[in-house]
Design a protein that fits this description.
alpha+beta
């Protein structure tokens, strides 16, 4: 078959699947209340006429910036929507080209980007649910199968980002530090603020045996916490660094499962906080925010080994010419970030695991510098002690090492 004939076939196929007009359009909330604090997520469903007159249903996701004082400050400080649109139109597009260049058939790690309206801060994306992907339940931490797939996927993502950097397609200077690791205001409002509410909950309902731990940790000033957190994420120039996803937790990933319920594919979503640092920032954020604590305690060593193997083998696959991190390098970076991970898990994760939809009030958190806005009831719920108790004891030991 010659080239001209094939062009005719492809053009015909494209016309038949192309949308000619929209008959009907409806929108509805894609997420229940309490699942996203910075964006309103809508599902747009269209009844359309295709090229040959066939009627079909198409669906898309629309992300719109929330309103309110906190949303405005987040927008001003982090430029969330501009950052995400830039990742989709620049970074992820180039990653797609890289996969084509090297014949990577594992599939993308993101959804298709459709459109960005800067004036109205609206991003239109592929509806992954239409392709069989679903989120995991936020209130149920991930099991070992999900953790292994996610960390393998993170290794691929970080490797592609590093290759793009090596080719001059990503500039390490174009990204701010992660706000939880480099911005005193965000450390105060979120980490220190949630810790103070945790201590109140411990004294109120955890029992006398926990009062000593609350007393020890409450001696840590906001300045000291900020200093230790910032230092943990301040890696020197010899450290392997790359573009990080930036907000790597359960709500920002979707999975496709087989008939037995095992995850077989995944996609990252919500690229609003990209930052340049050790890839172990993403790894730490994910493992401590989203993986079941018992799974983390029992499998941390093997999970880090799996991530390292995925990262280095992917660097090789995509033709990276620079120096690759050793397993010891990755373990050392994880150890350095241990205080941040443990602090984040004990202070913030209870707000993610609760069934309550009023765990956080972002406007109040920003207005009071973190002194208010956290629902005390979250830290007094049944099961909280069992979930974070062992890590809280570890946090005390880390704090006493200062």
């Amino acid at each position: 078959m010659d080239k001209e004939v094939f062009e005719v076939i492809l053009n015909k196929s494209s016309k038949e699947s192309k949308i000619k007009r929209i008959i009907e359009m409806k929108s509805e909330s894609a997420l229940p209340k309490g699942e996203n604090y910075t964006s309103t997520i809508l599902k747009i469903t269209l009844k359309v006429v295709l090229g040959k007159g066939r009627v079909a249903t198409k669906s898309f996701i629309a992300k719109k910036e929330n309103t309110g004082e906190a949303a405005e400050q987040l927008g001003n400080d982090l430029a969330l929507f501009c950052a995400e649109a830039s990742v989709y139109t620049n970074v992820l597009r180039e990653m797609g080209y890289l996969m084509e260049e090297f014949g990577d058939t594992e599939g993308p790690l993101w959804c298709e980007f459709i459109h960005y309206n800067r004036a109205n801060s609206i991003i239109i994306l592929e509806d992954l649910k239409a392709s069989g992907f679903n989120t995991v339940k936020r209130t149920e931490p991930q099991d070992l199968d999900h953790a292994r797939l996610t960390l393998r996927s993170l290794g691929r993502y970080h490797a592609m980002a590093k290759v793009l950097e090596e080719r001059g397609l990503i500039s390490k200077d174009g990204y701010k530090p992660h706000p939880f690791l480099g911005d005193g205001i965000y450390i105060r409002n979120f980490l220190y603020g949630s810790l103070q509410t945790l201590f109140k909950g411990m004294r109120k309902s955890w029992g006398e045996e926990w009062a000593e731990y609350a007393d020890k940790l409450s001696q840590m000033s906001c300045e000291e916490l900020s200093k230790r957190i910032t230092e943990s994420g301040n890696f020197d120039d010899n450290t392997f660094k790359c573009l990080n996803h930036g907000d790597c937790w359960s709500n920002n990933m979707m999975f496709k499962h087989n008939w037995e319920g095992k995850p077989i594919e995944m996609r990252f979503v919500d690229f609003q906080i990209p930052h340049y640092n050790s890839p172990c920032v993403d790894v730490t954020s994910y493992i401590y925010s989203s993986v079941k604590a018992s799974v983390r305690h029992q499998n941390l060593k093997s999970l880090i080994e799996l991530y390292h193997e995925s990262l280095t083998s992917s660097l090789d696959r995509f033709g990276y010419k620079g120096s690759k991190p050793s397993l010891e390098d990755i373990n050392n970076a994880m150890e350095r970030l241990l205080f941040f991970g443990t602090c984040f898990f004990t202070a913030c994760v209870p707000c993610a695991l609760t069934e309550r939809t009023d765990a956080l009030d972002l406007d109040k958190i920003f207005k009071t510098n973190g002194e208010e806005g956290y629902n005390l009831s979250v830290y007094c719920e049944d099961g909280v002690v069992e979930t974070i108790g062992e890590d809280l004891k570890a946090l005390v030991k880390l704090f006493e090492k200062r």
